[in-house]
Amino acid sequence: MILERHFTVQNLPRPLSVRAALNYWQLPRKWQHQLRINRSILINHHYQSFNQLLFNGNRIDLALSADLKRQRYLPAPRITCQILYEDTDLLIVNKPAGIKTHPNQPEEKTTLFNELTTYLSQPPLMLHRLDMLTSGAIMVAKNPLIVPIIEAQLANKTLQRTYLAVVPYHPQMALQARITAPIGLDPKDRRKRRIDGSGLAARTDYRILQHNQQYALLQLQLFTGRTHQIRVHLQSIGCPILGDPLYSSQPAGRLYLHAQHLSYQLPFQKQVRTVFAATPASFYQLTQAY
């Protein structure tokens, strides 16, 4: 598969060498090597040394050969997700609570990725996941060229994910705090995770947006992407998410966890875009002051 990109350089903070600009845009080093060896990046229609300076307004044409295989998904019979943002590179949707991000078996056709296969007429490319019971903003790729770029943003925290959760309110709760307990597997239940001193590093920051005597609405910033991270971290401080069937003893009509917004850097630019998924009204209703 040949991946191409044609664009005009914008928003460089200063003139950068070709090599520095490709690093600035977070293009993988193996692809940079291919561009250099094959001379398949043109600056104003000519190949230039990687030490050549780039300026805003320069024309870039690049072509990469990549052996990429798309996962296949059956098309869904209907679409329940809301499209929040779309361009030629990616798609951001509001995933309803209660549907899986992707199928575990090839014959499944009711997951988000089945719906997006119907919408796009081709399989989406995975960038990150949301738990089945979590609603909110999730990003998928349409263009294989941007997959490693967005994955790099996830790794270096350029891509920011913010969540809302409803938890039991305790007067001793800090108004804002950072939770850094490492997370590992729960040996007693393979579905679950637990705080484990030898587990994977994890960081979640939260602040209380509003509360009453019963419940608090938290805004949470996710800095790592461990399975069930927010759910486990909040349970660990005595504030399990309302309606969590694995980590809370308090049932509700749904898991009260919602991916509120995503902020990311546009590929081959430094402009940041933030996309919001409307918060279900019940999150505010449950936590408003009496």
UniProtKB/TrEMBL annotation:
Transmembrane segments: none
BP GO annotations: enzyme-directed rRNA pseudouridine synthesis
Domain Pseudouridine synthase RsuA/RluA-like: 89-236
Record field: catalytic activity: a uridine in RNA = a pseudouridine in RNA
InterPro entries: PsdUridine_synth_cat_dom_sf (IPR020103), PsdUridine_synth_RluA-like_CS (IPR006224), PsdUridine_synth_RsuA/RluA (IPR006145), RluA_PseudoU_synthase (IPR050188)
One annotated GO molecular function: catalytic activity, acting on RNA
Highest taxon of source: Bacteria
SUPFAM superfamilies: Pseudouridine synthase
Gene3D superfamilies: Pseudouridine synthase
Similarity comment: family membership: Belongs to the pseudouridine synthase RluA family.
Protein name in the entry: RNA pseudouridylate synthase
Organism: Bombilactobacillus apium
